[in-house]
Write a structure and sequence with these properties.
heterotrimer; A alpha/beta (568); B alpha+beta (180); C alpha/beta (439); A: 568 residues; 9-stranded mixed β-sheet; 24 helices; 11 strands; 9% strand; elongated; B: 180 residues; Ubiquitin Conjugating Enzyme; 4-stranded antiparallel β-sheet; two-stranded antiparallel sheet; 4 helices; APP-BP1 (chain A)
Chain lengths: 568, 180, 439
C-alpha cells in the first residue's frame, strides 16, 4: 500500500485478493441478484470499470452498492484529506484517518466489501486532471461525479461527452437529492417491462396456429377434453365463428366484445338437465376477450427506431443494436408482413399438459422461424457493411459479429427495444438550449397551486440558484452559521438573476429560499444513502444494458418522500 | 391531513402495571370470530381436542346423500399465524376413495390454495369440503384412478365408494371402514 | 475510542440548530435535540438482514446511539451481495451479533445491543422501553406481530388516546427493484392490519394441476415438494425439506427434471428449483439502500421533529427510470388490530363467569347474542366459554359457575369476546374491584 500525490494510479489490493480469497461460489454469493439480471448481466457487470469522483458520503454509498454486486473495478479520484465532518457522515472513513487521503481510506474500506472487486485510487485534483490528462477518463465504462462545483462539472461533462463515456452526476444538499444521467446514446434490448400484452396473434393467426386449432374439434370431444381445451384455442375458434358472421371483422367495440363473450358462453357444455357445466377454460376465454383481442401491430416506439438515421444509414462502425434494428425493419417489411417476429411465449392457462405443451411448441416454432429470418437479414447486413466473413460455417463469435442467441434475445424483446439519448450538460446549462419551457411550466404550476404537492422541480431551480451563489461568493448559501440570515437576501438575488436570465417571469416562494439556507449545503447521511442506492442502480442499468435508465434529471425530496423526473 | 405527533410531547414514565400474559394475535382474534360464528350444515361437526387451542381442530363430515352417504370423514385444520392472509392447512385424515382427495389426504379445493382470500372464513371451507362429497369433480382429479372410474362407469364408482367405506380393497389399495 | 471530534456533527447540526418553514410546528432548534438522539433516544431495529444492516449504519451516522437489533437468523453466503456488514468468514454466525459488533467498531459512540432471538421471545416490558421501532423484515407474520404488540400497549383515557403510549413504527420492505416504506403511528394512522390487502398473496398452484396436468417447470417442482417428498421421505421418515441443504435441493431437482421430461416441459434447473422450494425473493443492494434510507430519515424526523414525517406510505420502483408514489394509506374502520380499543368491564373476583356473559347479553350497549369469551394466560390462549360450538361448550360449561378468581382472572386481564353482533372480536379489560366499589 502506498500513498501518492502525483498523478500516478495506485492499485490497491486487499491481501485476500492476492490469496485468491475464500473462493466463494459466485452462483451462491450472487444468487439473489442473478435472478434479476441473469448470468449475462452479471458478466457485463463484472467487466465494468467505474470511476468515482469524490469520496463524499454520497460517493462511497454509490460505490458500496456497486462493489457488493460485483463490478469489475473502481477507481476513486479525490484530492481531499479526510476532515472531521466527513467522518461524521461517511461510513467508509474512520476517525483515525482524519488528515489522510480521502481517496485512499475510502478505497481501502470499500475494497473489504468484496474480494472479487479491484479498487484503486488517484489522489489528484479533478480540475488538474481534466486540464492535464483528460484521456485518463477514457478507460472507464462509467464515471460518477458527486458533490462537484458547477464549473468543474461542466468541464468534466464536456470531456466525457466528447469521448462518449456515460456520466452520472449525483449530489445531496440537505433534504434534496439530485441525479443527472448524461449519456449520448444508450440502447436497451432487455428493458424488463412490468406489464405487457402477450403476443398471441389471435387477430393475425400464423400457419402453425391455424393448423393446430383447426385440428381440434370441440363438438366431438369428450367432456374432459372439452373442459381442458386451452382458452387460446377456444378464443380462436369462437372468433372465427364471429368473423364469419360479421364480414371477417374482429370485435373492437364494447358491444361487439360482449357479443363475442355471449357466443363463447353458449359453447359451454350442459348437463342432462340443461344446466351449464363448470368449464374453467371457457371462463378464462371470456375473461381474455378484452385483453387478448387488441390489434397486433408494430409499436410506435419501434416504428420510430426504424426511421432513425442510425438504422437507415448502417456503416462499418454501426452498433450491433442498430444492425439488428435494421434487420428487424427488413423482416417486418418482408417475411413479417407488417409484424414483428413472434415473441413465442404463452401464459399459463387451464389445459391438459399435452395440448398446452403442443400449443406452446406451436408458438415457439414460429418464433424460431421468425428469428432465423431476422438472423438472415442480420448476416446479410453485416456482410454488406464488411463486418462478417462471407463464409463462416461455424459462425463463431468474432468482434463485430453477432451470435444466434443474441439475435433470439433481440427478437423476443423486439416490442420493448428502447433507445435513450440524453441531452448534454452543455445544452442544459446554455440559456439558448436550456429546456426553459419545462422549467417555466413547473414554476407556474407551483405558483398557481399553493398546495401543489406533486412536483419537486422547484428544488432543481433552487440548487441552480445555490450554485450561482457559490460562483459569486465562493461558498454555498448559509454554509456558515454567522451568515445564516445575511445569505437569505443574497440567495434571493441569485435566484432572481437566474430566472431573469432564463426569461421566466413567475417567482419562487420565499419559503424555499429559507429552506435552502437552512440546509447550508449539508450532506445528510440518509439522503446520501438514498441517492447511493438510486445512482448505483443507474450505473448497473448502463453497464448491463438492461432496464431503463433515468432520462435525464431525478429530484428526490426527502421531506415529503416524493420524487420527480424531468428532461432538462 | 397530516396527523401531528411529536415524540417530545411524550412523557416516558416507565411505570405501568404489568398486565398478565401476552395479547392475543390478530390471527387469534380473527379465528375466534370465525369459530364463534360457525354455522355448519347438519352433516358437519367440529371437534376441538383442546378447547384452548382454536388454531387446531377437526371437522367431521357425514354426508347424508349421494355416493358418500353414511360415511364419516375427518379433516384436520391447522391455522397459522399468517391467517387470514394465508389459508389454513387442511388434510383429510380418513382414507377415502375420491377423485379430489388423494390417498395421502391432500385435498384439491380451489379456496384452499389458488383462490383463497382473507374475506373467506372457516365456514366457507367447510361448505367447500361438503360440496366435494356431493359433487366429486372428475375433470380435475387428484386421485386419477377414482376420477376415471367416475367418468366412465358411474355405477362402478358408486360400488367402489360403498366398498371402500365398508372397509376393503379397491385394486391394491385397502380402505379402512368409515361408515357410521 | 474517541467519540467526539471537531466537525463530527456539522452536517446534522445545520438541520437541528436551524429551523425552517417546513419544520414540524413543535420543532425548536437547540443543541438539546442532538443530545436527545445521543443520550436518551432508544431505537429498536427488527431484522439485521438486507434492510437491517443499512438501517444500523444509517441510524448510527444520524446520531442515534442506543440501538437494539433483533434477528433470529444466521449469515448465509447468499446474503453477502447486499448485507455489507458481513464477510465470508462470518458465514454461520448470528446476524445480529456480527452486525452490532461491526457498527460499534466502525462508528465511535455507537452502542448497538444485539439479540439473537425471535421478536416473540420478548414481552411488553421490553418493547415499552423504545421510542421508535423500525422494521426491516421479510415476513408478514412478524410485521403483524409487532404491529399488534405496539397497538396493545396503547393507553386510552376517557376514550382519548394517551399520546405518551404511542411508539411509532417505521416499516420497510423490498423485492427486487421494488420497495415500500411507511410510517405507522399506532392508534393514529393506518396500521399493518388496516392495509393487510396491500401485501400480495402467496402463489399457490392448484393441487390437481400439480398432480396431473403440469404445464410449467414450477408445477413439476411443486409436485416433488408437496406430493412426492412426503410419500418417498428420501432422507428418512419425518425429515422435512431443508432448502439450505444442497442434497435436498439436488434430490428435488432430479425428480423435478424427471417429471418435466415426462411431460416435455423445459426449464427446470437448480436456480429455479431452489427459488421455488425456498420461495426466494430476488434482492439487490441498491433497493435495500433506498428503502432503509427512507426509513432512517423518517426515524430521524420523528425523533427530532426537524420536519414533518412521511404521511404515510411510499412506493418505489426503479425498473424503468425511478418511480415513486407517496400516499396516505387510510385507517380501516373495522381493523382487527387498531380499531379495537379495550373497553372496561367492572367486576369483582367473586363474580362468576356467567355474570360476565349475562352482562354482555343484557347490557344495553352490547346486547350480544352468544358471546364466545377467551383470554390469554402465560402467552397462551384460554377459552373461557363458547356456546356456539358444541364440543367447546361441553368442555367449558363448568367455567360459567366458577368465580373469576377460580378461573385465574386478574385485575387488568384482557378478555376477547366474539359475537355475531360485532364485526370483529372485541377486547375488554377486566377491572376487579370489591363488592363495595361496584355497588
Amino acid at each position: 500500500m502506498r500513498r501518492t500525490k502525483g498523478p500516478v494510479l495506485i492499485v490497491y489490493k486487499m491481501a485476500a485478493t492476492l490469496n485468491k480469497g475464500t473462493g466463494l461460489d459466485k452462483n451462491n454469493k450472487y444468487d439473489r441478484q442473478l435472478r434479476l439480471w441473469g448470468d449475462h448481466g452479471q458478466a457485463a457487470l463484472e467487466s465494468s470499470r467505474v470511476c468515482l469522483i469524490n469520496a463524499s458520503a454520497t460517493g462511497t454509498e454509490i460505490l458500496k452498492n456497486l462493489v457488493l454486486p460485483g463490478i469489475g473495478s473502481f477507481t476513486i479520484v479525490d484530492s481531499c484529506k479526510v476532515k472531521g465532518e466527513d467522518v461524521g457522515i461517511n461510513f467508509f472513513l474512520t476517525v483515525d484517518s482524519i488528515g489522510k487521503s480521502r481517496a485512499q481510506v475510502a478505497t481501502e474500506l470499500l475494497s473489504e466489501l468484496n474480494e472479487d472487486v479491484a479498487g484503486d485510487f488517484l489522489e489528484e485534483d479533478v480540475d488538474d486532471l481534466l486540464e492535464k490528462n483528460p484521456s485518463f477518463f477514457s478507460t472507464f465504462t462509467t464515471v460518477i461525479a458527486t458533490q462537484l462545483p458547477e464549473k468543474t462539472l461542466l468541464h468534466l461533462g464536456k470531456v466525457l461527452w466528447e469521448r462518449n463515456i456515460p456520466l452520472i452526476v449525483c449530489r445531496c444538499y440537505g433534504f434534496i437529492g439530485y441525479l443527472r444521467m448524461v449519456i449520448k446514446e444508450h440502447t436497451i434490448v432487455e428493458s424488463h417491462p412490468d406489464n405487457t400484452h402477450e403476443d398471441l396473434r389471435l387477430d393475425r393467426p400464423f400457419k402453425g396456429l391455424h393448423e393446430f386449432c383447426d385440428s381440434l374439434d370441440l363438438n366431438s370431444m369428450n367432456k374432459k377434453d372439452h373442459s381442458h381445451t386451452p382458452w387460446l384455442v377456444l378464443l380462436y375458434k369462437y372468433l372465427d365463428i364471429w368473423k364469419n358472421m360479421n364480414g371477417g371483422k374482429i370485435p373492437s367495440t364494447y358491444k361487439e366484445k360482449t357479443a363475442l363473450k355471449e357466443l363463447i358462453k353458449e359453447g359451454v357444455r350442459r348437463n342432462a338437465e340443461g344446466v351449464p357445466d363448470d368449464e374453467e377454460n371457457f371462463e378464462e376465454a371470456i375473461r381474455s376477450v378484452n385483453s387478448s383481442l387488441h390489434a397486433t401491430a408494430v409499436p410506435a416506439e419501434i416504428q420510430a427506431l426504424f426511421e432513425d438515421p442510425c438504422c437507415l444509414n448502417l456503416n462499418t462502425d454501426s452498433k450491433n443494436f442498430w444492425v439488428m434494428v435494421r434487420a428487424l425493419k427488413e423482416f417486418t417489411e418482408n417475411e413479417g408482413q407488417g409484424l414483428l417476429p413472434l415473441r413465442g411465449s404463452i401464459p399459463d392457462m387451464t389445459s391438459d399438459s399435452e395440448r398446452y405443451i403442443q400449443l406452446q411448441t406451436v408458438y415457439r416454432d414460429q418464433a424460431e422461424i421468425d428469428a432465423t429470418a431476422v438472423a438472415g437479414h442480420v448476416h446479410a447486413l453485416l456482410h454488406n457493411i464488411g463486418r462478417e466473413e462471407p463464409l463462416n460455417p461455424d459462425r463463431t463469435k468474432k468482434p463485430g459479429t453477432l451470435s444466434d442467441s443474441e439475435i433470439r434475445t433481440f427478437c423476443r424483446n423486439a416490442a420493448f427495444l428502447t433507445v435513450l439519448r440524453c441531452r448534454s450538460l452543455e445544452e442544459e446549462y446554455t440559456t439558448e438550449t436550456a429546456n426553459l419551457e419545462e422549467l417555466g411550466q413547473h414554476i407556474l404550476e407551483e405558483e398557481e397551486d399553493a398546495n401543489s404537492d406533486s412536483d419537486d422541480t422547484v428544488l432543481y431551480i433552487l440548487l441552480r440558484a445555490a450554485d450561482r451563489f457559490f460562483t459569486e461568493y465562493n461558498r454555498y448559501p448559509s454554509y456558515f452559521d454567522d451568515t445564516l440570515d445575511a445569505d437569505i437576501p443574497k440567495l434571493k438575488a441569485c435566484l432572481s438573476k437566474l430566472l431573469h436570465d432564463w426569461g421566466l417571469t413567475a417567482g419562487v416562494k420565499d419559503d424555499y429560499v429559507h429552506e435552502i439556507c437552512r440546509y447550508g449545503a449539508s450532506e445528510l447521511h440518509t439522503v446520501a444513502a438514498f441517492m447511493g442506492g438510486v445512482a448505483a442502480q443507474e450505473v448497473i442499468k448502463v453497464v448491463t444494458g438492461q432496464f431503463v435508465p433515468i432520462n435525464n434529471t431525478f429530484i428526490y425530496n426527502a421531506q415529503k418522500q416524493t420524487s420527480t423526473t424531468i428532461i432538462l | 391531513m397530516i396527523k401531528l405527533f411529536s415524540l417530545k410531547q411524550q412523557k416516558k414514565d416507565g411505570e405501568t402495571a404489568s398486565e398478565r400474559g401476552k395479547r392475543a394475535s390478530a390471527a387469534q382474534l380473527r379465528i375466534q370470530k370465525d369459530i364463534n360464528e360457525l354455522n355448519l350444515p347438519r352433516t358437519c361437526q367440529v371437534e376441538f381436542p383442546d378447547p384452548d387451542d382454536l388454531l387446531n381442530f377437526k371437522v367431521i363430515i357425514s354426508p347424508d346423500e349421494e355416493f358418500y352417504r353414511g360415511g364419516r370423514f375427518v379433516f384436520s385444520f391447522k391455522v397459522g399465524q399468517g391467517y387470514p392472509h394465508d389459508p389454513p392447512k387442511v388434510k383429510c385424515e380418513t382414507m377415502v376413495y375420491h377423485p379430489n382427495i388423494d390417498l395421502e389426504g391432500n385435498v384439491c379445493l380451489n379456496i384452499l390454495r389458488e383462490d383463497w382470500k382473507p374475506v373467506l372464513t372457516i365456514n366457507s371451507i367447510v361448505y367447500g369440503l361438503q360440496y366435494l362429497f356431493l359433487e366429486p369433480n372428475p375433470e380435475d382429479p387428484l386421485n386419477k384412478e377414482a376420477a376415471e372410474v367416475l367418468q366412465t362407469n358411474r355405477r362402478l364408482f358408486e360400488q367402489n365408494v360403498a366398498k371402500s367405506m365398508r372397509g376393503g380393497h379397491i385394486g391394491t389399495v385397502y380402505f379402512d371402514r368409515c361408515l357410521i | 475510542m474517541e467519540t467526539e471530534w471537531p466537525g463530527r456533527w456539522d452536517h446534522i447540526q445545520k438541520i437541528l440548530l436551524r429551523t425552517g418553514p417546513f419544520a414540524h410546528p413543535s420543532f425548536e432548534p437547540s443543541p438539546e435535540v442532538l443530545s436527545f438522539l445521543k443520550e436518551t433516544c432508544k431505537i429498536l431495529v427488527i431484522g439485521a438482514g438486507g434492510l437491517g444492516c443499512e438501517l444500523l449504519k444509517d441510524l448510527a451516522l444520524m446520531g442515534f446511539r442506543d440501538i437494539h437489533v433483533i434477528d433470529m437468523d444466521t449469515i448465509d453466503v447468499s446474503n453477502l451481495n447486499r448485507q455489507f456488514l458481513f464477510r465470508a468468514k462470518d458465514v454461520g454466525k448470528a446476524k445480529a451479533d456480527v452486525a452490532a459488533a461491526f457498527i460499534n467498531t466502525r462508528i465511535p459512540g455507537a452502542k448497538v445491543t444485539p439479540h439473537f432471538a425471535k421478536i416473540q421471545d420478548f414481552d411488553e416490558d421490553f418493547y415499552r422501553d423504545f421510542h421508535i421501532v423500525v422494521c426491516g423484515l421479510d415476513s408478514i407474520i412478524a410485521r403483524r406481530w409487532i404491529n399488534g404488540m405496539l397497538i396493545s400497549m396503547l393507553k386510552y383515557e376517557n376514550g382519548a388516546l394517551d399520546q405518551s403510549s404511542v411508539i411509532p413504527m417505521v416499516d420497510g420492505g423490498t423485492e427486487g427493484f421494488k420497495g415500500n416504506a411507511r410510517v405507522i403511528l399506532p392508534g393514529i394512522t393506518a396500521c399493518v392490519e388496516c392495509t393487510l390487502g396491500l401485501y400480495p398473496p402467496q402463489v399457490n398452484f392448484p393441487l390437481c394441476t400439480i398432480a396431473h396436468t403440469p404445464r410449467l417447470p414450477e408445477h413439476c417442482i411443486e409436485f416433488v415438494r408437496i406430493l412426492l417428498w412426503p410419500k418417498e421421505e428420501p432422507f428418512g421418515a419425518g425429515v422435512a425439506i431443508d432448502g439450505d441443504d444442497p442434497n435436498h435441493i439436488k434430490w428435488i431437482l432430479e425428480k423435478s427434471q424427471e417429471r418435466a421430461s415426462q411431460y416435455n416441459i423445459s426449464g427446470v434447473n437448480y436456480r429455479l428449483t431452489q427459488g421455488v422450494v425456498k420461495r426466494i425473493m430476488p434482492a439487490v443492494a441498491s433497493t435495500n439502500a433506498v428503502i432503509s434510507a427512507v426509513c432512517a430519515t423518517e426515524v430521524f424526523k420523528l425523533a427530532t421533529s426537524c420536519c414533518l414525517p412521511l404521511n404515510n406510505y411510499m412506493n418505489f420502483n426503479d425498473t424503468k427510470g425511478v418511480y415513486t408514489y407517496t400516499f396516505e394509506a387510510e385507517k380501516s374502520e373495522g381493523c382487527l388490530a387498531c380499531s379495537d380499543r379495550p373497553q372496561v368491564l367492572n367486576f369483582t373476583e367473586t363474580d362468576k363467569l356467567q355474570d360476565i356473559i349475562n352482562h354482555l347479553q343484557e347490557n344495553a350497549t352490547y346486547q350480544m347474542k352468544s358471546p364466545g369469551v377467551t383470554t390469554s394466560m402465560d402467552g397462551k390462549n384460554k377459552t373461557l366459554y363458547m356456546q356456539t360450538v358444541k364440543s367447546i361448550e361441553e368442555k367449558t360449561r363448568e367455567n360459567l359457575k366458577k368465580s373469576l378468581k377460580e378461573l385465574g382472572l386478574m385485575d387488568k386481564q384482557e378478555l376477547y369476546v366474539a359475537d355475531v353482533t360485532t364485526p370483529n372480536t372485541l377486547t375488554f379489560q377486566l377491572q376487579l374491584g370489591t363488592k363495595m366499589e361496584n355497588s
